[in-house]
Amino acid sequence: MNSETVDWLNQLSSELLAEEFRNCCGADWWCRRMASSGPFASAEEVHLLADINFDRLAEVDWLEAFAAHPRIGDLNSLRMKFAGNRIWSHGEQAGVDPNDEAVLQRLSAKNDSYFQRFGFIFIICAAGKRAVEMLAALEDRLPNDPATELRIAAAEQRKITHLRLDKLEKPAL
Q: Domain 64-167 is in which class?
């Protein structure tokens, strides 16, 4: 995010600003709170306010944010779900090779187990990770207790959101 983007964000109505933030995080309360936190002096302030507002989220808000993500390795979900951030999700999951059927099948099976255990999809900041790394992380996290896993998933959501905040840009005219 550059200063031109910050200036553009500051010119948006609260409703439009909340929609821009929704591309970064699917928690409605967080988006509305971020939209009411401006005007922003800098990109650094946007990131700081993101964390301050994350610290105020309840479990239900985190779950709402998680639900806005496609499942890691679920290519149909990537193609069909959440048009607003589909391109970003796909880029973030670039390490998932659609031709590695064995890894995709294991990711799918482990995702099912994860969802059954925790009640939400596996959240990981996938940027720069290969499919086998994400599968290993999923397998490592499966034995966690639900409270621990919620905290880990929330930390991953923060990372994802900060990456997406940096991708916001003023649209070309």
A: mainly alpha
Structure tokens at 72: 């890691």
**3-state percent breakdown (helix, strand, coil) of the chain, nearest 5:** 65, 0, 35
Catalytic residue, candidates 47, 69, 90, 162: 69
Query: Mind listing the pLDDT tens digit for each residue in 27-37?
Result: 999 999 999 99
CB-count burial class (<10 Å; 0-12, 13-18, 19+) for 102: exposed
**90 is known as an active-site residue:** no
As separate numbers, helices (DSSP H) first and strands (DSSP E) second, the chain gives 10, 0
Residue 163: which H helix or E strand, with range? helix 146-167
Please report which confidence band the pLDDT of residue 85 belongs to, taking 50, 70 and 90 as the band edges.
Answer: very low
Global confidence as pTM: 0.83
User: Per-domain residue ranges for the chain?
Assistant: 3-57, 64-167
